[in-house]
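Pasting as-is:
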Amino acid sequence: MMNFCKVLLTSCSLLLIGCDSHQGKSDGGSGVKSGAEQGENSAIAAGTGAESGARQDAQTQSAPESSESTAAGPSSEPSSAEDRVAATFSDGTTISQSEILKRIKMLPDKIQKLPFSQLYNLVLFVMVQEKLAYKHAIEQQFDKKPAIIKQLDTIAKSIAQQHYLMGKVKPLVTNEAVKEQYDALVKNFAPADEVGLKHILVSTETEAKGVIELLKKGESFDKLQKDRSKDQNTMAKGGVLGYFGKGQLPAGMVDKIMNTEAGNFVDEPVAVPGTGWSILFVFEKRKSAPVSLEAVRDRLEGVLLKKFFIQEIGRLFKEHKVVLFDPNGKPIPYEDVDVRLEKLRKKQSGEQPTKEDEELEQSLNNLKETTVVAKIGDEPVTFKNVSDFIQERPEMFGGLSPGMVYLTACEEFTAQKLLARVVGKAGIDLDPQVVIAVQEARKAIIAQGYLADEAGKRIDDDQLRAAYEKIVENVNKNELEYRLRVIHVASKDAGEKAIAAINSGKKFEVVAKDFCCDKEAVPNALDGYQKKSALEGKSSELSAEVAKTPNATVLKKPWYVDGQWYVIRLEDKRKVEVPSFAQLKQHIKSRLVPERMVAFSLELIQKDGVKAQDFNGKPVNFSEKELERSLTGAGGDIGIAQ
């Protein structure tokens, strides 16, 4: 719930200037390399999911939503003439219902799926929280702190730059361009057998077998599902889970499930680790179909926006005669930067570095603060400029090789500097939409910063250590964790060909380059260690196969995980290593701060004597317990916050 409040508090004010979730990072970066990256990754995932055909037939299988969940529709929104007050403060100021509805419309779609009454009250709380925090922050001159001033300046520049970029590239994202992107995504789709499944979830194997016996005697599956199933997530949909291909079914049960005729139950229960036992019913068999264009339209638009962002930055680089230099002072044409970065990505993922790679990184040691690493026309960019940029944004460069950090930071800083010049000359920062967006962002940043600062003061070392001890207690020190290297391939057939190539003697890295279907991703990246239990959660069969595979060995067949096909190589395995208190201290504090933020906000609400009303005008008494319960009842904060 605390994460959800943070999402609401910082709900991007860039939406006010017509930018959507595909516009790129809002951390002050220009989005040169990362603009719309989230949209792109989602689109790629959707594409490979289309090849599996694992999709939900919402029209025929989903139950209608409750009246509460649709209460936010036009019929329930007040007109401006009857707009009611939602909250009143001690100084006489108010928050209106229309303000809350406006904020709700700005939120991501998955958050808007909350039942309206719960969503309304949560947004009401966050807006009250924001207003009070901003008031106290200004009174205490929190906004005068150098770090906050710098953050406000950064976000103001970012909003103006994004407004400029979106104005240039959004018109290029036409229906025709999206359709072309979609056709390329599904052109290699091959239909596969799928089963539509619904289930009854019970607690024990004995109970599951009892349900199967009742089904054998002729009891109605639908009636038993209503009476016996403990799965609240599928209760309203008659227990429907969706459609699944062979690669998505539980290990050891694939043939039994696939061979069960439509309209029949599976006569053996399936264990659901940590949850219970599932009795499955096959309600339909069919051939898979690719995901529809409309289902992935937003994601594909994100892919195109990223492409056009990069093209626009390239155009500006040429127009303003921007030159980037490698550490030896050799010019790097803009169009060659991606090639350089790709080489360094390969090195990062384990490929032997070339002589050129080694020379590049060695030459970094020779750079001085005054070394010119780029030019915008005649204006120099020094190594100190880039070094300061890296230090201010460590999250952008974590885990990257020194050479990749240098090239990425050099290009990103130069792009931002160039955009600032272009935006300033065009007067974009004076655009009314930008001014409003900056004002809203300013309030949110000051309020959030003040709350986080005050919350941090309420956390001492004893609390941090107590939280650490709880973490250690829950760590299974005998559990294995694996380090995997993967190639994301387009299909099972492509995966089999890739494995055959590796077994014939080709290097994994070479095969990755040839077969990886996600050209923008690291084709064979090492993502660090992941626990055996986490892998079992994705596929128990895959986890069992990895457990018996020798280190530095490719698994014998391609694997279908989370709607995508992968060739997987196990690098090594080890027992779980427990990080020290010092290593986890900052992470633990970052987890505790949101909780303390809400507690502190409730203190402010009580002191101010805020009077709040829900959408129907009934009094709302905020409490941490009620807020937590409200969100839990809507499905839990993990799915929502993510």
